[in-house]
Design brief:
Elements: E1 6-12, H1 16-28, E2 31-37, H2 41-49, E3 55-57, H3 60-64, E4 69-72, H4 79-86, E5 95-98, H5 104-110, E6 119-120, E7 123-126, E8 146-149, H6 157-169, E9 173-176, H7 179-206, H8 212-217, H9 223-230, H10 234-243, H11 245-267, H12 271-290
Parallel strand pairs: 1-2, 1-4, 2-3, 4-5, 5-6, 8-9
Antiparallel strand pairs: 7-8
The chain binds NADP nicotinamide-adenine-dinucleotide phosphate.
Length: about 300
């Protein structure tokens, strides 16, 4: 096999991430054949109409037969059942991976089912949008984003290198770490921020003293930026919180303590301390921009016209 090239690639699930992998792999010439499976006929037909693959399979086993690499692109809670369903059909030497936003739980769910003849290399491309489904994908999604692999120490080094090279072909940088470390890092960089967004949007929705129309009308004050991530797929995020429970609760406890400290600063008028914190946090955002992980354009690069934006 050429470096980072899989003659036959099977995608199980063809939502945002699956369809983006299909488009990016095609763009990169990283495969000769993409076999696609999705749970519902609607999604499978939509993928076919969009021309995302070369073959479309209602049956899971048909999709993975003869595949050199199988990528699970489904909500993390279903990983174990899918591993069980494909185990007997996997080609010896096939690489099995996934894109799930949680790693330790996926490893625990899938490992018992997979045959020793397959190379299981869990993965997570840290790239996404709030949209879902096969129409949401785009070939550039992984460009200059990180893909984290969490291989086991005993996993065949050649298989890990081949999967890493595949992700690099798709435009990503690749880093390896343990599943547990991945889950802690993602708890603070992704999972807790999503929980905060879901919470603040829920709080605003339940307010009685401020009308819904006022919440919408004055949302450019900051609220709307939370609503973007609070619009993310409910199934996917339910599964993430249920399957990264420990790390999320640990980070949430730290967050709550820090929030209480902030509350005290406001209560006792400690402006200097607030100013110091806000100065530190501004530097963190600048660091993210310098790392190429965010646009430097003001207001996330939104086009501005007239009085549309009302600022902070
Ligand atoms: P998505 O757009 O909602 O697509 C989900 C896919 O999984 C669809 O093909 C769907 O099939 C299938 N599916 C849903 N529930 C299923 C079930 N119970 N059994 C079998 N198949 C099921 O999701 P996505 O955003 O691509 O996310 C897929 C995975 O990528 C998740 O594990 C997520 O954690 C991870 N991820 C997401 C992002 C992101 O920003 N979205 C970023 C990185 C990683 P049908 O439509 O046919 O039901």
């Amino acid at each position: 096999m050429a470096e980072g090239h899989f003659p036959r690639l099977a995608l199980i699930g063809i939502g945002l991430i699956g369809s983006s992998i299909a488009l990016a792999a095609r763009r990169a010439g990283a495969t000769d054949h993409i076999a696609i499976h999705s749970r519902t006929p609607e999604t499978l037909h939509r993928a076919e109409n969009l021309g995302l693959g070369d073959s479309y399979h209602a049956d899971l086993a048909d999709a993975v037969r003869d595949a050199d690499c199988v990528i699970l692109c489904v909500p993390v809670g279903i990983s174990g059942a899918i591993a069980k369903a494909i185990a007997d059909t996997l080609k010896p030497g096939a690489i099995v991976t996934d894109v799930g936003s949680v790693k330790a739980s996926v490893v625990a769910q899938m490992t018992p089912h997979l045959p020793a003849t397959a190379h299981f290399v869990p993965g997570h491309p840290v790239a996404g949008t709030e949209n879902s489904g096969p129409d949401a994908g785009f070939a550039e999604l992984f460009d200059n984003r990180w893909c984290i692999l969490t291989p086991f120490p005993e996993t065949d080094a050649g298989a890990v290198a081949q999967l890493a090279a595949f992700w690099r072909r798709l435009g990503a940088y690749v880093e390896s770490m343990t599943p547990e470390h991945h889950d802690l890092v993602l708890a603070i960089t992704s999972h807790v921020p999503h929980l905060i967004a879901y919470n603040i949007v829920g709080t605003a929705a339940d307010l009685e003293t401020v009308s819904q129309s006022e919440v919408m009308k004055f949302s450019a004050g900051g609220f709307r930026d939370f609503t973007r991530i609070a619009a993310s797929d409910p199934t996917m995020w339910r599964d993430i919180f249920l399957h990264n429970r420990e790390a999320v609760l640990e980070m949430l406890a730290r967050f709550s303590e820090d929030l209480s400290a902030l509350q005290r600063l406001i209560r006792y008028g400690e402006g200097d301390k607030l100013f110091d914190l806000f100065t530190r946090t501004r530097a963190i955002r600048n660091g993210i921009i310098e790392a190429g992980q965010e646009t430097a354009a003001a207001d996330f690069g939104r086009p501005h016209g007239g009085d549309e934006d009302q600022g902070g």
